[in-house]
DNA sequence: AGATATTTGTACCGATCGGTACGAAAGATG
DNA sequence: CATCTTTCGTACCGATCGGTACAAATATCT
């Protein structure tokens, strides 16, 4: 019994880590990994460089934490879409979720997983690869869900779940690029509808 | 009559401007505007910093020249697609052309107009805006071509040429992101075919 | 209290950024 | 030959990059 349940020993942290991560996420989202300098980040987080390194490790560590937060927050529409009952509803929820997430007023336009780093020099190459893997994991999740749908007869025989999954991710990535360029939310919703027009009808109908 | 038609006066340039621009294009394409340092660029171009500034002006000027070269070279499939006789053929040529251009062996994967700069800090903001305008001009070109198609009865009444144009650009942008992440050419061609399945049939059929 | 553990601000590190001053080199012109 | 114009290599500019040393500040533990 060493502690009086008064919290950790040592000088207490003078800032809220969650809020700091939230602000860091906005900076990485708007400016990309390379474009976000330590000065930009710490200014937005309202803390000093020292505090940032003590609390989060390094710029790259911070980026990974931010990406996790992004996955659970703005990009949580992916997980929700996977829970939809039919393949068509999964596809619909995924694409329209992407539109919503990339055009949310008050949040940066576009997708952190895309504009965070598509191309980079040597210093940002690790972040670029991290994001490529992140996007690829989304394809895998969709593919597994659609494979199940195919097994359940929710997709016509001869459908290719992996191809359909990558198709959805491709359109979502395009939506992210368009959103980053300032495309309006309504038009992107109509584009998502267009992309869903060719969705294969279930087998037994 | 001062010159004997022996070329410009002064010490002649020791490098080929076209080849230098070609190499600079590859670097910007692979690493993005911010990720491409002057050292990276001049090393690939095989010239010194001084020569680069004397010949091209600045990093930003160089980028604009490179973008023009990219438009006339790897991205020339856009102009070619616009010349196709029917709206469906325009759409098909555009998307499959995008796949070819973003997955050409020996050239960087992806699209310079996308990964050149989607998000950036203050220094690269001008390049980012330049590329956003570049992509938007592509949408405009497609929209004008499809508007003509609508007038010619090549698209069903009630079609929205501007929406269809942005739809095509959205899919092409997604293809670029996928290509940058290493997606394979064949699969992207199949994805382009999927995206074209919903293309509206002409009116009089 | 006093010792210990942690955070904070300041001030700095070497490396790299885009960009340039300057003189030597290389060609045409006279 | 000397002169003029342009390019080239070197060596450097101030600013910024990601990251850190160090001591003052603030908490808990004995």
Give a nutshell description of this structure.
The first copy, chain A, has 205 residues and is mainly alpha-helical.
What does this structure look like?
The structure is a homodimer of 205-residue chains. With 205 residues, chain A is mainly alpha-helical. Chain A folds into two domains: 11-69, Orthogonal Bundle (Arc Repressor Mutant, subunit A); 75-196, Tetracycline Repressor, domain 2. Helix content of chain A is 65%, strand content 0%. Chain A is built from ten helices and no strands. Chain A has helices spanning 17-35, 38-45, 49-56, 59-72, 77-82, 87-102, 112-115, 125-151, 161-180, 185-196. In chain A, helix 1 (17-35) packs antiparallel against helix 2 and helix 6 (87-102) packs parallel to helix 9 (161-180). Chain A is elongated. The N and C termini of chain A lie far apart (68 Å). The model of chain A has no long low-confidence stretch (mean pLDDT 95). At the A-B interface, helix 1, helix 8, helix 9 and helix 10 of A face helix 1, helix 8, helix 9 and helix 10 of B. Chain A binds a DNA duplex (30 and 30 nucleotides) through residues 2-4, 6-14, 37-39, 47-51, 53-55, 58-59, 123.
